[in-house]
Specification:
Oligomer: single chain
Number of helices: 2
Mean pLDDT: 89
Low-confidence stretches: none
Protein name: DUF2116 family Zn-ribbon domain-containing protein
Radius of gyration: 21 Å
Shape: elongated
Organism: Pantoea latae
Strand content: under 5%
Order of helices and strands: HH
Helix content: 40-55%
Number of strands: 0
Length: 70
Amino acid sequence: MNFPDAADEAAAREQQMIEVALANRPRPAVEFTGKCHYCEETISKGHYCDAGCREDHERLLWAQKQRSVA
């Protein structure tokens, strides 16, 4: 590809790197279901109804991970 100047070439390469990074990023482990992943209360956005549920669920997942390691 012939670019008129170095800035155009740099912008094209930057866009290419962004596209490759997005294609290779890990997929989210938790998908939106419309319910809190800890208490199953109905929510309109996010994964948890509040910070307390998020923290409790993170602790639960950590404990389960520790049990499987031992």
